[in-house]
Specification:
The complex is a heterodimer of chains A (about 80) and B (about 1150).
Chain A (H helix, E strand, L loop, with lengths): L3 H22 L1 H11 L7 H5 L13 H11 L2
Chain B lengths: L1 H21 L7 H27 L7 H27 L4 E9 L2 E6 L8 E6 L7 E14 L17 E9 L3 E3 L8 E3 L6 E9 L4 E8 L15 E8 L4 E2 L3 E12 L6 E3 L4 E7 L5 H4 L8 E7 L14 H7 L2 E7 L9 E3 L12 H20 L4 H10 L29 H8 L9 H17 L4 H18 L4 H20 L3 H19 L7 H25 L3 H20 L1 H4 L2 H23 L15 H26 L6 H25 L6 H29 L10 H15 L1 H12 L4 H22 L10 E5 L8 E4 L5 E4 L4 E2 L5 E2 H12 L4 E6 L5 H4 L2 H7 L1 E7 L1 H4 L7 H8 L10 H11 L11 H7 L4 H6 L5 E3 L5 E7 L2 E9 L10 H4 L3 E6 L2 E5 L5 H10 L2 H4 L3 E3 L15 H20 L3 E4 L5 H4 L3 H19 L4 E3 L6 E5 L4 E5 H4 L1 H11 L6
Helix pairs in contact in B: 1-3, 1-12, 2-3, 6-7, 6-10, 6-18, 6-19, 7-18, 8-19, 9-10, 9-11, 9-18, 10-11, 11-12, 11-13, 12-13, 13-17, 14-16, 17-18, 17-20, 18-19, 20-22, 21-22, 25-29, 32-34, 34-36
The chains are: A mainly alpha (about 80), B alpha+beta (about 1150).
Chain lengths: ~80, ~1150
């Protein structure tokens, strides 16, 4: 437990560097980073890949969802 | 002392629960148990107060009797508390409301307590009556009727309470007949409900006697009906958990507050139990409920309420009991008819917003969704599902996901489809525990946040409460399962004692385990046998107690001995990977042990001569972290995985130890990186980019983990093993306890028997103890056979057959191996039903496996039987005996269709046959009959292990097996296919094997898949004495149907039945007909409805001829057990064995609640 803080900081730095390497090499990650920089995460290949995984978790609650919630409130 | 007493109290509480499970008291004793518990606690409190007073007065030393009395009170209070809690949780007792004294034609009612709400009642006969007495109850009903909106939906008031109007009515119940011949104790259900009972009226009859009137609890369990297609009920309730969202459905847990049992009837207040409802994706407003925000909503649900299917076969997973352990007593399927109203409607308080759940839970679920959003942005599928499962407990996202090498996940590295899902790979490789959020995950989170807070230079006393709060949120996020709760309680206790009392790890763990167990079991004592509870506590106790002696044992390995130990381990590992049959054979162990002995002797001789082949390398020189990891893996295998996995699942992941050596460090990194990426990813603007970088690194580690599981399955088997009985489990743990506590035991022994011959005494004592324990294990080994009878067990395997034949001479044959469907629901009755049953019965060897026809529901499971069991000979119909793995589709079709390529089969059906019998090239590892036959061929390893399985084609006239027993002949003879048998449009069916199993005067005819022409041919060509049988297994599961044509299909089928089946019945003259039937969907697919209709007609056709009660079905009656001593025969069914719960439900389902 006492050696934890150093190890976590070390792991964090190494992981960030390793992640940078993966983003540079892996085409899907490259595409995702590009999409995120352009503010179009919903078009990134990773987000599209996850389309059917917990589909109710969306990037931002849509207007339709909010309206639906309001409608149902007085059912 | 207080700490020790607390630990003892917790363990004794647990023992009280175990005692209640083994010897449960009648629920009527519950009040007495509660009073007794109260007395013990009062006495304990008095003792404690008295002791404190003595200490204050200066009496420092406690008298011996007082000390003993204190301990006895602790034990008794804990035992009675545990016992009472379990009885209360396990039973829903009826409450006695009144007694009735019959005096001739009058009756006196003595009301002891009034009904508190609209309730149903039953009358119990408590003494004999001289003649039948007809009577009826008089009372008042204040029916609770819902206030409806314009569109007919129940409404709530502005406070969020359901709105009702009460309609008062005085009435008399229907007439109840107390029969004079009915035994004392008989219960009579009163069809109408009451709010108050005011009197009783004798309508007819005159007798003296006593009756009791009992209120039936309004627990959910008393409202469930049998069958999924019964009348719908309306439930007003609340969604009590976050919804489980799959891509094809959502599972809701609904706490019912009120239930309307009959449309238009009164609402009852529900007194306990939860409903699990499957919400179909096509229901209106599906998305409103299929997300975390669904938690806490008030809903009106209208659908049939049914209970889970009971255990269909001995040894099956008991789904009903499992659900009840989790307080789920009813299930619903929420589907919406086309154009009909939705089965679930959200209701909000009048003029307000819809209700929400507890704020802390909502907050936790919001964090979970935010983290999941980060994962979906930064990890490709299925890595996102894996990280979501291990970090957030969302393991349902991994359900049905093909393995990492599937083309479904992008470019496949190996270019092959997977035969298993990721979840299966985890299970088979022994790393499945990472998906159940438990001590490992909670410890990782604890270490992570301890590190972060320390980095922020916060003091220990300041951040520990914060971490405890984080752990609580983590538990809620991950579903608060028992394993998580156990870990959170233990970690919190550890942190608190570490921060405020300066206690160490072991001390806090030893205290934390029983306290956590107490808290969980106090809340729900039924969890005592739940795998999630026992495996979790088994793991932590193994780690704490068994790891140190294992490490000590391994530390003795050094130099040449260390080298020999490594060689032995490598040898066993190689054999495990090579063939499971090899490591379960003496043909392997005898030479292997000889080699090991020689190696040990050689190592010893070399050491004496000073030759050190390995230098001075020793186990203790391995880095402590790795050495401890290895020791802890061995500890977990011995203490938890091997015994409990066998006891619960009948299987053992042989490669679990190896896989976990890599899996544990990997999962530590994956969870920490996932948690950091999820949390940091929530920071506005830069957060997603940090999350992307961290999870890009995590992609590497999670890929490594998924690869590890995948290849571990390829390397090591996941065999079925003998199911361990509770007695053997106890003996096993006694032996393990001797190992763990051998040093204190030895000290006690030494102090009693002197020191002179210490080591010899020690050895004698240990050997004696082991002999006693092993002797007890042998003496109590399972022995299920009774007498020298012929036993036939027809397992309930849905649509399909699996008939176990146990001859009087104890030979075992299995006829057919059930259905396996890989493509859709991964349905596998071989692995889910047949092999677990064999494991339960300790059957690991079959003298023969007989497959009657190439139909999937008979042949598909054969590959799994060949994979897991020692089998003497495989018997096949001629067409199947010729199959090879390299056969093309055309060759195969020509073989099974006997050249009649225009036979009545659709292409999808034939392709499925080809995939299961021959195997497809895109899935080279998926089991198929031809591949399994090749694998069990005469190879070197099979010859060595004695696991070669020869196969033989059967035709009419062959005798599979015969023996003489007590002067009576047992024989299994083949009656079909004969060369003259007509193939016609149904060659596979008409060429099916037909067997006659006879023993003395008893016979059973197993008619395989015979179609109408085949049945007629059999009836006309086989001599009647060869056909006569007391029991007939219905041909073709009762689903044979004429080919589609013109005219009325039902009439066509009846004509065919009259033409052929009726003739066969006349020749066989059976007393009983048994149907091996269940849901035909997996086999018939698009034609399922036709198959069901054909079965219904055939079933009733035969029932009309034999009479009701003489026709049984594995769908309705579950497993069927037939036994014969060669003269008569007996039939029992699993349905009869598990009928107690069913009867209750049936009784309530027949109740027409009205007013």
């Amino acid at each position: 437990m006492r050696g934890g803080p150093g190890a976590i900081a070390y792991m964090l730095v190494i992981s960030l560097l390793m992640g940078l390497l993966v983003v540079l090499i892996h085409p899907d990650y490259r595409d995702t980073a590009r999409s995120m920089l352009r503010g179009r995460t919903e078009q990134s290949s990773i987000w599209i890949d996850n389309e059917r995984y917990y589909p109710e978790v969306v990037l931002a609650p849509s207007g339709e969802d909010r309206e639906e919630g309001a409608d149902n409130g007085s059912n | 002392m207080v700490q020790t007493k607390l630990m003892v109290f917790c363990y004794m509480f647990l023992l009280g629960i175990v005692f209640a499970k083994l010897v449960p008291a009648d629920a009527t004793w519950l009040n007495a148990i509660h009073i007794l518990t109260g007395v013990f606690f009062l006495a304990l409190a008095a003792h404690y107060v008295n002791r404190r007073r003595e200490i204050r007065q200066g009496y420092k030393y406690e008298l011996a009797w007082s000390r003993v009395a204190g301990w006895v009170l602790v034990v008794l209070a804990a035992l009675s508390l545990g016992y009472g809690r379990y009885i209360k949780a396990d039973t829903v007792p009826d409450t006695r409301m009144a007694t009735v004294v019959l005096r001739g034609s009058a009756a006196d009612l003595k009301v002891e307590a009034q009904l508190t709400d609209t309730s149903r009642v039953r009358i119990r006969k408590t003494s004999a009556v001289a003649e039948d007495v007809k009577l009826r109850l008089l009372g008042v009903l204040e029916a609770r009727l819902a206030v409806l909106s314009d569109d007919g939906v129940p409404q709530m008031d502005s406070e969020g309470r359901w709105r009702f109007t009460r309609v008062k009515q005085e009435y008399a119940s229907d007439v109840i007949v107390i029969g004079k011949d009915d035994p004392v104790g008989t219960d009579y259900l009163v069809p109408q409900p009451f709010d108050r009972i005011t009197g009783i009226e004798v309508v007819e009859g005159s007798s003296s006697g006593h009756l009791g009137i009992y209120r039936i609890s309004n627990h959910l369990a008393s409202f469930v009906r049998l069958g999924m297609n019964s009348m719908p009920v309306t439930v007003l309730g609340k969604i009590s958990q976050d919804p489980w969202v799959y891509d094809f459905k959502t599972v809701l847990h609904i706490s019912p507050l009120f239930i309307q049992y009959r449309p238009g009837g009164p609402f009852y207040r529900v007194e306990g139990g939860t409903i699990r409802a499957n919400l179909d994706t096509r229901v209106d407003n599906y998305r409103r409920f299929a997300r975390s925000e669904g938690y806490g909503l008030d809903v009106v649900v209208t659908a049939p309420l049914f209970e889970a299917r009971p255990q269909a076969n001995p040894g099956d997973f008991d789904q009903r009991q499992y659900l009840q352990n989790n307080n789920i007593y009813g299930q619903m399927g929420l589907r919406q008819a086309r154009g009909g109203p939705p089965p679930i409607v959200l209701v909000a308080p009048e003029g307000g917003e819809p209700a929400r759940g507890h704020p802390l839970v909502r907050f936790s679920l919001k964090i979970r969704d935010d983290m999941l959003r980060v994962f979906k942005q930064t990890l490709p599928y299925p890595h996102s599902a894996f990280v979501g499962a291990v970090t957030l407990g969302l393991r349902y996202g991994l359900q049905g996901v093909e393995c990492i090498f599937s083309p479904a996940h992008g470019d496949p590295l190996l270019g092959q489809r997977c035969e298993q899902t990721i979840a299966d790979e985890f299970k088979h490789s022994g790393v499945n525990h990472v998906l159940a959020v438990s001590g490992l995950h909670v410890t990782i989170i604890t270490i992570l946040f301890t590190g972060i807070f320390t980095l922020l230079r916060m003091s220990r006393r300041a951040f520990v409460p914060l971490i405890v709060m984080i752990l609580v949120i983590f538990a809620i996020i991950t579903g608060a399962r028992p394993s998580t709760l156990r870990a959170v309680i233990m970690n919190s206790l550890f942190l608190l004692t570490w921060a405020y009392l300066n206690k160490g790890l072991v001390a806090s763990a030893l205290l934390g385990v029983p306290v956590a167990a107490f808290l969980i079991l106090y809340h729900n004592p039924l969890m005592i046998v739940d795998p999630s509870f026992t495996l979790s506590f088994g793991a932590i106790l193994s780690l704490v107690l068994i790891t140190p002696p294992v490490y000590k044992l391994l530390s003795m390995l050094r130099g040449n001995n260390f080298l020999v130990a490594i060689l032995i381990l490598l040898g066993i590992s190689a054999a495990l990977g090579w063939s499971w049959f090899l490591v379960t054979s003496l043909r392997f162990w005898i030479p292997f042990l000889i080699v090991c002995t020689l190696l040990c002797l050689g190592a010893r001789a070399a050491s004496r001569k000073g030759k050190k082949l390995f230098g001075n390398l020793a186990y203790v020189q391995i880095p402590v972290a790795i050495g401890t990891l290895v020791a802890s893996q061995a500890a977990i295998q011995w203490g938890m995985m091997a015994p409990l996995s066998a006891a619960y699942f009948s299987r053992w992941a042989a490669g679990g130890s190896y896989a976990n050596l890599l899996a544990l460090p990997l999962i530590g990194i994956v969870v920490q990186l996932g948690a950091m990426a999820g949390l940091l990813g929530m920071i506005p603007v830069i957060g997603p980019f940090i999350g992307l970088l961290l999870n890009a690194a995590n992609w590497v580690f999670s890929t490594g983990f998924l690869w590890l599981a995948h290849f571990s399955v390829k390397l090591f088997p996941f065999p079925f093993v003998r199911k361990i009985s509770p007695v053997h489990l106890l003996l096993y743990y006694l032996i393990l306890a001797v190992f763990v506590w051998h040093e204190p035991l030895w000290s006690v022994f030494k102090s009693q028997f002197g020191r002179k011959k210490g080591h010899r005494h020690w050895a004698y004592a240990m050997v004696a103890l082991l002999i006693v324990l092993l002797g007890a294990a042998f003496a109590t080994r399972p022995h299920y056979r009774h007498g020298n009878d012929l036993n036939l067990t027809m397992l309930s395997v849905n649509y399909g057959n699996a008939l176990l034949v146990e001859t009087p001479g104890d030979k075992k044959f299995l006829i057919d191996a059930g259905m396996v469907e890989h493509e859709r629901g991964m349905f596998n009755s071989a692995e889910r039903t047949i092999l677990p049953y064999f494991s339960y019965r300790s059957i690991m060897n079959l003298d023969g496996l007989i497959v009657l026809s190439p139909h999937l529901e008979r042949v598909a499971g054969a590959a799994y039987m060949l994979r897991h069991l020692h089998i003497g000979t495989l018997y096949l119909p001629p067409a199947l005996a010729a199959v090879t793995p390299d056969m093309t589709e055309d060759e195969f079709f020509a073989l099974v269709l006997e050249g009649n390529l225009a036979a009545e089969y659709d292409e999808e059906f034939l392709r499925a046959l080809y995939a299961e019998i021959i195997g497809t090239s895109d899935m080279p590892y998926r089991p198929s009959l031809a591949r399994a036959m090749k694998k069990r061929g005469a190879t070197f390893v099979n010859k060595w292990a004695g696991s070669t399985v020869p196969h033989r084609a059967l035709t009419a006239g062959d005798v599979v097996y015969e023996e003489m027993h007590n002067g009576k002949r047992f024989a299994m003879e083949v009656l079909n296919p004969s060369p003259a048998a007509p193939a016609g449009d149904f060659p596979m069916e008409n060429r099916s094997l037909v067997l006659r199993i006879s023993y003395g005067d008893f016979a059973m005819l197993v008619s395989g898949d015979l179609h109408f022409d085949g049945q007629l041919h059999l009836a006309e060509t086989v001599p009647p004495e060869k056909l006569a049988a007391q029991v007939l297994m219905a041909p073709h599961h009762g689903t044979a149907a004429p080919p589609p044509g013109f005219g009325n299909p039902k009439q066509q089928l009846l004509d065919e039945l009259n033409r052929s089946t009726a003739v066969l019945l006349d020749k066989v003259r059976p007393e009983k007909v048994v149907f091996d039937y269940g849901n035909p969907g997996p086999v018939y697919k698009q034609r399922t409805r036709d198959a069901r209709a054909a079965h219904e007609i055939t079933f009733h056709f035969i029932e009309e001829r034999l009479g009701a009660g003489n026709v049984l079905s594995t769908e309705r009656d579950l497993a069927i057990f037939i036994s014969s001593n060669g003269e008569g025969f007996e039939i029992e069914t699993q349905g009869q064995k598990v009928s107690s719960g069913g009867e209750t439900a049936e009784a309530v389902s027949s109740l027409e609640v009205g007013f």
